[in-house]
Amino acid sequence: MLNPSLSPLSTNVPHAMDRIDSQRGFSLIEVSIVTAIVLLLAIIAIPAVGTYVIENKVPKIGEELARFVLQTQINALPGSTSPYADIATSHLATMVSDSSIFSVGTTGGVTSVLHGLGRDGTVEVASADSGASFSLTLNKVSHAACPSLASIMQRLAHTITISNAGGSSATVKSDSQDYSALSAESHCAKGDVNSFVFLAR
């Protein structure tokens, strides 16, 4: 007579049940809940990450723009009343062509420099005051770059103007007005809608 405790059936059944229990996965409801939580966290975190990235770019972009201003001033024709008459965006594009910060492109023979402080934001360089000065205009700048960008550039620019898509425009530094970071910040609107114009001699 066989001993029931040694029966193959009695010894195999518990092990088979253990294997079935260990192979159970997540239910559809559990997966849906986890997915919803991850999406919610992503929606909350992505704007904050974007703002953080832009804030970290500002010092590097400010340094590159300041370097361009200094280089342009050093290379200006001495004694000329219009040393910057021929300056253009292409001069900045040449200087930053190997930069990992700016993106340089050419469309239809027109050179463009993207600054990365806002979606599709560009930097434009032009002569001003009949060649006696030159301007650096940054379009579509995020509020996250304000007032840091102006604070860096105010050492080299004698005039700074900030405007936004809402039509508001203000000069935050001029020959008769000292620069104020609080004033600069108050004139920036939320989003990639701000324009900075730095005028240098």
Overview of this structure, please?
The chain has 201 residues and is an alpha+beta fold. The protein has a single domain (58-200), classed as TcpA-like pilin, CATH 3.30.1690.10. It has five helices and seven strands. It has a seven-stranded antiparallel sheet. The longest helix has 48 residues, at 28-75.
Helices and strands, in N-to-C order? HHHEEEEHEEHE
Oligomeric form:
single chain
Helix content: 40-55%
CATH topology: TcpA-like pilin
Relevant CATH superfamily: TcpA-like pilin
Any idea what the CATH architecture is?
2-Layer Sandwich
pLDDT under 50 segments (min length 5)? none
Order of strands across the biggest sheet?
1-2-3-4-7-5-6
Beta-strand portion reads 15-25%
Tally of discrete structural domains:
1
Number of helices: 5
- What radius of gyration results from the CA coordinates? 30 Å
Beta-strand segment tally: 7
Helix-strand makeup class: alpha+beta
